[in-house]
Each structure stands twice: as structure tokens, then as C-alpha cells.
């Protein structure tokens, strides 16, 4: 019974940590809120942090492919980026985009990350190209 309580406590901490704001000022939002924020932000810059083959299989309209796994190229892509723009970022499940978002936020960029990535986006029936 004690083991079950410990597992439940750890699960609760993990679940609480997966939503809202991360420790690095990255806003993590669910798909419909993400879309609404994109639609209402004239300074939005949408980034797909996945690999090229994943992007080709379907991506959000207007997304710029900047592969986080090619970290050096990813970081170079933002050297002269206008920091007045908000970067909206996503990947497949949210892990890669959150890593990238933490790096971006740590370097002074405003970042919004898609909770659950494109998997959650697709599960909610949201559009892709």
C-alpha cells in the first residue's frame, strides 16, 4: 500500500509539472488555446521542431521547419531573430519542443509550447497540411 501511495504522489507531481508554465517561463498550452493564441498574435512565429520526414507527413499551416535535433543549426537560426516576436513551437509529443523552448526562453525569447505536441493536436481533430 505504501508503494502505491508513493507512485500516486510521484504521478501527481509529474502531471502538475506538465501543464501551465514551466520553470523557464515557457507557456505550455493545449491545442485549442494554442490555435487561438496563434490566430490573435500578429507577431507569431510558428516553429515545427521535428525532423524533415515528420514535417513532411503533416504540419501546422505556416510552420517553419527548424529541427531541434540538429541543435547547432537550430540555435543559429535564432541568432538574429526579432525578440519582439513570440515563438510558437511544437514537435511530435512535446518533449523536443519543450527542450527547445527552454533554451529559447533562457536566451530571452518569448515562447509558447504546444502541450502534447502534434499528437494531441491531431487527437483533437485540429487541421494540418
TrEMBL record:
Protein name, UniProt field: Rhodanese-like domain-containing protein
Phylogenetic placement of the source organism: Bacteria, Pseudomonadati, Bacteroidota, Bacteroidia, Bacteroidales
Amino acid at each position: 500500500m505504501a508503494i502505491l501511495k508513493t507512485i500516486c504522489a510521484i504521478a501527481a507531481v509529474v502531471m502538475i509539472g506538465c501543464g501551465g508554465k514551466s520553470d523557464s517561463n515557457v507557456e505550455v498550452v493545449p491545442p485549442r488555446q494554442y490555435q487561438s493564441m496563434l490566430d490573435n498574435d500578429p507577431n507569431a512565429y510558428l516553429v515545427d521542431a521535428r525532423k524533415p520526414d515528420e514535417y513532411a507527413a503533416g504540419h501546422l499551416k505556416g510552420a517553419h521547419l527548424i529541427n531541434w535535433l540538429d541543435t547547432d543549426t537550430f540555435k543559429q537560426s535564432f541568432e538574429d531573430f526579432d525578440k519582439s516576436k513570440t515563438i510558437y513551437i511544437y514537435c511530435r509529443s512535446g518533449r523536443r519542443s519543450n527542450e527547445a523552448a527552454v533554451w529559447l526562453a533562457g536566451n530571452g525569447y518569448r515562447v509558447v509550447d504546444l502541450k502534447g505536441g502534434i499528437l494531441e493536436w491531431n487527437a483533437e481533430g485540429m487541421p494540418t497540411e
